[in-house]
Amino acid sequence: MIRGADIKILKSNSNVKAIHIDSAGIRRETRMGRRSFGTSRIAWVVCVLLIPAFTGACGYRFAGGGRLPEGIRTLSVGVFENQTKETGLEHQIANEIVHQFTRFGTVRMTDRDSAEAFLTAQIRSAGINTIAHKSANVSAERRIRVVVIPTLTAPDGRIIWSSPPVAEDETFFVGANHLQTEQNKKSALAKLSKRMAERIYYQITDF
Description:
Blueprint: E1 8-11, E2 15-21, E3 27-33, H1 34-57, E4 74-77, E5 81-82, H2 89-104, E6 108-109, E7 117-135, E8 138-153, E9 159-162, E10 166-173, H3 178-204
Helix pairs in contact: 2-3
């Protein structure tokens, strides 16, 4: 039995020599032509590169990015219900979701009157907690966590699809003053909203 940690590869101009110590402690040598060694290495690289092609041919795909439930082709995204104190967060997340659908072309975005389905959501919470301190009573870094519950509704009010609460969080630094801290939080919410929209998009198109 070969102990992998004891294997050494020695190269020369004409050949490649592999030296290993077997289970009995005996030194053994195996000579390989430089061409064989190079060919093996090339074959390994080719196999790695071909893996995505073979998995695609077998029908594997990432979750999401497929179709909407019930074959929906037209969609309207409404203004989300914001139950938090973060003003404008409802528009930010809704706009990011519209961007996802527009970017991938999964459905045609339209107004509510002509849409086959209507996507809404409740922004349930936006909690902030301190994760690092400058001193006992002074925060250095905070984390904001947003929880959203999206729902896809038919024109007759029937719920086509709904999701358990979707949560995302992002950290931001406490600035030298309140204005700077608020700006840092705003930037954190922008990053968070983008990730939230991506998650909701892939969940709702996982059909």
